[in-house]
Amino acid sequence: MAKTIDPVTLVVIQNGLQQVCNEMDLAFCRAAFSPVISEALDRSDGIYHGETGELIAQGELGLPVFVGTMQFSTQAVIERARSSPLLAPKPGDVYIVNDPYLGGTHLMDVRFVKPFFYKGRLFAWLANTGHWPDIGGMVPGGFSANATEVEQEGLRLPPVKLYKQGELDQEILSIILSNIRIADQRIGDIKAQAAALSIGEKRLTALLDRYGDDVVEQAIEELKQRASQQMRARISTIPDGTYEGSAVVDSDGVVDEPLLIRMKIEKKGDELHFDMTGSSPPCSGPMNSVIATTYSSIYLAVKHIFPDVPINAGTFTPLKIKDPHDTFLYARYPRPVSGCAAEVSQRIAEAVFNALVKALPDRLFAAPAGTSGNLALGGYDPKRGRSYVMYVISGGGYGGWYGGDGISNGCSTIGISKTTPIEVMEQYYPVLFEEYSLHEGSGGAGQYRGGFGVNYTIRLRRGEARASMVMDHGRTGPRGVLGGEDGGTNKVAIETVQANGTRVYIPPHLSKDQDIRIKAGDRVRVSTPGGGGFGDPAKRDPAAIARDLERGYYTERQIAERFRQRPAARTAAE
Questions:
Q1: Cα(20)–Cα(47) distance, rounded to whole angstroms?
Q2: 128-182 tens-digit pLDDT
């Protein structure tokens, strides 16, 4: 019978595994070439079980949406490796995969998976994901709003060995580089991604050397069981019953009709059962979600509600999800999926929040902005004599919550990705940011108002470029709850300089479009959504209303119409 591991050793090993992942995160960020990885942090690293591929630990700088998808993609690699002698894992191997139907998200999220051997035995798998700024396809950046099949979105890679026993396979590399834009700049990201796994290999070896593989294995199993127990304990605080919620996607980018997510959650004892039956059928455009992303979206939504539960495979065992067959939330080949990770995932999480807010009003909140604001600009810079692809992630308002207003310009629901610093983008690309400000008035009214989105304006300084965007909440703003009003909507406008003046183009689908040609002097204007309001706006503290008016967050008319209070409340505050 195995000796029970003592609590001190258990905590030390838990933090040691976390530190291994954190060091991989830092190595990846610091060595990556692309600003979307090095500055915006659109990436993740983790350790996975040697036999099952289940999550053991993930870095604190990693995107939450990758928690589930990387587990599924690692399992897909393990399955492929077992099926073919040529793919059998050896020390120094690194598999590359971005196939969204094999535990992925969209094609731009490229996963590296490395078998970790200790004393000749396959002990675990190390894996990471990096968002490449381009993966080929119809438009620069990969965010094709009009794609109707996955081949139009870019290069799709099944699990193959990019590194074989430590050596980079030049043939596979040449295939990849021949099918993507700005290929000469990708080698830096590839080597950074592989280097992060090498760092993880060294740090995990040191941990095993210190405590022994048997003790670490025992700790991993114990941590999994404890995470499950903790999540079950949190779920038990929810009253038994069935809770229903919903969320809406603007359109799929091809058919100008909304997509509905119906979420039914049954709480029984210490488990939550999720059923999305009745959601919209598979769609023509790229807003389909692969099943790994659908699962991961529910995982991250529950983790938002109970953030103190540690993350590993045990965290999600009490979550029972019914596969949403015959809906746009279970995409199969060849359905396009470029919007699934960045946009649909956030609608799924939003539906979970919407369903449970009445049961947990002290833990939940009104809907956040719910879009990553994906904008890609690709072109040729005549001054530098080279092509480029610029990818912009933008923040939005968080929803109001029990006891406070939502924060402004917060990151997306699915991760900690942040907007690349303006100075960095202006240095790398031929653009000038003429405005970056709060989207005033976008916070949903409520007893606790929503946070505000942002406005930004990009002017192309030289050359020509093509703009594409896959965003959301352009038709309806993030939902208010418990009497609160919806947040402001996403807005996009392209201003092109014509001989007879400036022409303003509004995308027909409002938040999605592709391949818009712009030239030097033209502008792209974006306003991101604000968060929903929480509670009856008429109950808002007059002093808080006066402060909002003083700071210019709302006009006097907005205060009177939306909060149903007169701005004279400023006098009371003073």
A1: 9
A2: 999 999 999 999 999 999 999 999 999 999 999 999 999 999 999 999 999 999 9
Q: For residues 380 and 290, what is the distance between their CA atoms, to the nearest angstrom? A: 33
Is residue 246 a contact partner of residue 261, using CB atoms and an 8 Å limit? Answer: yes
**pLDDT of 261 strictly over 70:** yes
Mean pLDDT in the chain?
Answer: 94
pLDDT digits (tens, 9 = 90+) for 387-416: 999 999 999 999 999 999 999 999 888 877
| DSSP per-residue string spanning 403-428 | TBPPPSSBPPTT----PPPHHHHHHH
- List, in order, residues 6 or more apart from 55 with CB less than 8 Å away: 46, 47, 48, 49, 67, 70, 71, 311, 312, 313
Please state at what angle helix 291-305 crosses helix 345-356, rounded to 10 degrees: 40
pLDDT at 16 over 80: yes
At residue 452, the 3 state secondary structure works out as: coil
Tell me if 367 sits within 8 A of 446, measured CB to CB: no
Give yes or no for a contact between 275 and 322, defined as CB atoms under 8 angstroms apart: yes
Helix (H, G, I), strand (E, B) or coil at 132: coil
Distance in angstroms (rounded) separating the CA atoms of residues 42 and 35: 9
Q: Which residue from 563, 558, 341 is spatially nearest to 449, judged by alpha carbons? A: 563
Q: What is the pLDDT of residues 64-82, one digit of tens each?
A: 888 788 999 999 999 999 9
Neighbours of 57 (CB within 10 A): 25
Write down the domain spans for the chain. Answer: 7-227, 365-540
- Give the N- to C-terminal CA distance of the chain in Å, as an integer: 71
pTM of the model: 0.94
Q: Is 563 left (phi over 0), alpha (psi -120 to 50) or beta?
A: alpha
Residue partners of 48: CB distance under 8 A and separation at least 6: 54, 55, 56, 70, 71, 74, 124, 125, 126, 127
Q: CA 157, 97, 150 angle in degrees (round to 5)?
A: 45
If one counts every other C-beta atom within 10 angstroms of the C-beta of residue 457, the result is 17
The DSSP H or E segment spanning 101 is none
3-class state of residue 393 by DSSP? coil
CA–CA separation, 500 and 412 (whole Å): 40
